[in-house]
């Protein structure tokens, strides 16, 4: 929690966090190990440094571990505040892993890569 | 106060107010938002500080959520101020169900766009923290809810739950501080609830953030009796009652009682109302009690206190006035059965709604709660006579000093409303009859005392008027009898040995009756004697007369015979002279 997020310094790659960025399904190089697919929602608020950092960190981690097997829906609560209720969002940013079950919630800018990997169960054992 | 509330609501706008308003140079006066909670607005002289946050804290189950909910419901219903309820502990459904038990239809308010319920659920097990975050999501939800209906009131219940959901306490604190600023910027009047901490007002020190108004709810148990109390710990920029005020939660919600002694400014009525016992009316001189006076009837067990109470109730109801009868010993049914035996039928009055009997054990609540409950019931029923039978039982739920204070406040309250109070007091057998344990005798207007009079192996009931302010009352001790036709005061019998009661009185009365009979007999006898004498006299008169008549007859016969004889002699003589042919016949004729 108290880790310094290095990713913060990265320039925001996506100017409009509000846009529901479509799934990244590129690079089907590695075959799906267990055939699982990750469906996630990332709740952000505008283009704050934390939000953009979270988006960048998530993409990086997913590309590293589950390339091609994930879908991220980015929701900007400043534009769609009513959506905060559905997933019980309090902290920003919050990542909700819908699939595979169980649903998990990760808060923070996702800079603690190892914790993200563990929480999302990205690593095959 | 109301003007302030009105002007503020008219100036209300969903947009955030300028920051400058937060630290005004010198506000003329603090604007307040009425809560609509009975009594609370009086204590705080107008409600909660408008546009600011108020902390309502207390231990579990003390009524925080209810207070907050009622604030919102009243806001929506009475003051046209929509509200937002952010519930961190209960789900929306639970809240709706809970509120429904208090006749609050939250669903209806939600449908009418007067209320938004947002249930914030935080499950610490589901959350993993991976880097920096803030609580912007909460802010967004709150802002969204406020803007959806243009809310003027916000309740956060209980924001402390956040502390269990997030590990970074430092961050939480700064975010909570920001949240309060955020709400202020919207100009909403907010209530934040907090759980009571061991040493501080709230477990997580929320009071640090709420500078303006802090209300403490308490649920205290003394001698196994719980009393709810409310105290305004702090109210910046406003005067407020600083006492602890008892409050009540019943099916109509929250009510606080501003129990301060009402002072002595009540008006004294000259109207007299009957006591239900005509003989007692006569004893009191004025023909009854003055309306609005407080009457105490004290006596030992079984001296007829409830009977006098019921007689008063019946008489008052029969006049078409309402009576509220608090009984702390018997059930309504029991009273009615028992009173039927002395010819007092309360049932028709109960059915017509003129009489209401409230039966509760004194130790059911604390004293303050009793007072609150009594006040509330009086406000609701609006009686002209209130009967408390007996007040001495309150000692079961408090000490004498507290009972005294409570009764004084109650009497003041009743006097302010010109309600006649009739209280009975059970004096301990063996104790001084003229002392009430709670020393209320000095504040009551009429003090009647019923007592047992023990004489020649019997107990009989005696009544006397110990005091009656402003009346020329009787100084006599009267015996009274309860029979099938009601209460009767019997004329005192003063014998050589003082006042006689019961069979001694009956015996004395019998003796007097005997004497009278005897006197009557004697005079009859004399009359008879006289009569006899008269008869004898008359008999003698008759006898004398008979004698006289006999004598008279005899004499008259003699006289008649004499006359006959003389006639015959004369005839003989004339015959003789004729025969002698003498002149004697002529001379005799001329001589006649």
Fold and architecture overview:
The complex is a heterodimer of chains A (125) and B (592). Chain A is of the alpha+beta class. In chain A, 23% of the residues lie in helices and 19% in strands. Chain A has helices spanning 49-65, 83-86, 113-120, and strands spanning 38-44, 70-76, 94-99, 104-107. A 4-stranded mixed β-sheet of chain A has the order 2-1-3-4, covered by helices on one side. In chain A, strand 1, helix 1 (49-65) and strand 2 form a beta-alpha-beta unit. Chain B has 592 residues and is α/β, with parallel strands linked by helices. In chain B, helix 13 (367-381) runs parallel beside helix 14. Chain B has 16 helices and 25 strands. In chain B, the strands form 5 sheets. In chain B, strands 5-4-7-8-3-9-10-11-12 form a 9-stranded mixed β-sheet, with helices on both faces. Chain B is rod-shaped, with a radius of gyration of 48 Å. In chain B, a hairpin with a 2-residue loop joins strand 24 and strand 25. Chains A and B meet through helix 1, strand 4 and helix 3 of A and strand 6 and helix 6 of B. Strand 4 (104-107) of chain A pairs parallel with strand 6 of chain B.
Give a brief rundown of this model:
Chain A has 125 residues and is α+β, with helices and mostly antiparallel strands. In chain A, 23% of the residues lie in helices and 19% in strands. Chain A has helices spanning 49-65, 83-86, 113-120, and strands at 38-44, 70-76, 94-99, 104-107.
Average pLDDT, all residues of chain A: 73
Radius of gyration of chain B equals 48 Å
Fraction of residues in H or I helices of chain B: 25-40%
Question: Major sheet of chain B: size, sense and barrel closure?
Answer: 9 strands, mixed
Distance between the termini of chain B: 147 Å
Shape category of chain A: globular
Helix count, DSSP H or I runs of 4 or more residues of chain B: 16
- Lateral strand order in the biggest sheet of chain A: 2-1-3-4
Kindly estimate the percentage of residues of chain B that lie in beta strands according to DSSP: 15-25%
